[in-house]
Amino acid sequence: MAKNSVAGLLTSVNELFTTQKERDEAKREAVVDIPLSEIRDFPDHPFKVCMDEAMMEMAESVKQYGVLVPGMVRAKPEGGYEMVAGHRRKMASEIAQMETMPCLVRELTDDEAIIIMVDSNLQRETLLPSEKAFAYRMKLEAMKRQGQRTDLTSAPLEPKLFSRSNEELASQSPDSRAQIQRYIRLTHLIPSLLDMVDEGRIAMRPAVELSYLPEKEQEALFEIMGLEECTPSHVQAIKIRKFYEEGKLSEDVILSIMQEEKPNQKEQFRMPRERISKYFSPGTPAKTIEDTIIKALELYRKRQRSMER
Fold first, then answer.
1. pLDDT for the residue numbered 148
2. Which of 22, 118, 126, 152 has its CA at a distance of 20 to 30 angstroms from the CA of residue 196?
3. SS3 letters for 141-181?
4. Amino acid 309: pLDDT
């Protein structure tokens, strides 16, 4: 009997002596308790896993009830596993001194793993601009690679392919295509400037303009900003970029632009971020922090007035 005939017969016999439910169960992914020591973090994971109050609350929950939602991992050829979704649950498990973590083990290509990793985190309420920036960039590059064709694709077709990837990414994300492109531009900023964007000290629009500057010019700008204790407005950032593109940008030009008085410029009250960081979750926008402080001061003033009566 031919090999294919035997295989077909075995399949038929299997279908005769098993129910559809049993066959579905066999195909379903099983949850496995995997030692934490065997799970490595995803390479270049763009989302920060912080030891904050929310993490401590999660660790306490894991200690009492265990990990209620399994993570997702993929097996590595050299042994062990790579975390795809569940980095925060993994850290909480480590803090809770658990030895294992329940996970789904799934066969995934590198690009499939990147897309799942990004999608499982993008819906979180509080994400830093830098986290979104690198996450969108990783997912877009993975989508472009998935869409490439090795048989018929030629150079003239590639721009259409990349444009389609941009559209697909926007349709799957909470941000518009234009906003996603702005976030991805942030990945070209030096770390010190990107940190200022995360802290709300540089707004998105001027940050995008500054991302077109080479590292050397960005470093010079950062130093001048520190000396002058100021940050560029959108108009100033456009000027700086224009001078660079015209080949006329120098440290003196940057200094001159940064010393310009901004329209409706008012004296600013500054407070070191570290003095209030413990009262807010990581990634809380500067405007939200400001509004919260104002409300707290208003309540304090009402209380003081009531005590004086």
1. 56
2. 118
3. HHHHHHHCCCCCCCHHHHHHHHHHHHHHHHHCCCCCHHHHH
4. 61
Q: Clarify whether residues 123 and 95 are in a common domain.
A: no
CATH of the domain at 95: 3.90.1530.30
Backbone φ/ψ region at 283: left (φ over 0), alpha (ψ -120 to 50), beta: left
- Tokens read off for 66: 């265990």
Please report the pLDDT score of residue 270 as a whole number: 67
What are 69's two structure tokens? 């939602």
Q: At what angle do helices 87-95 and 53-65 cross, to 10 degrees?
A: 70
Q: Is residue 66 part of a domain?
A: yes
* Paired tokens of 151: 């048989």
196 lies in some domain: no
**Of 163, 188, 213, which marks where a domain is finished?**
188
Expressed as residue numbers, the domain containing 51 is: 29-108
Place 13 in a pLDDT band, splitting at 50, 70 and 90.
Answer: very low
Mean pLDDT of 278-283: 78
Last residue in a domain, options 82, 108, 134: 108
CA–CA gap between residue 204 and residue 192 (Å, rounded): 15
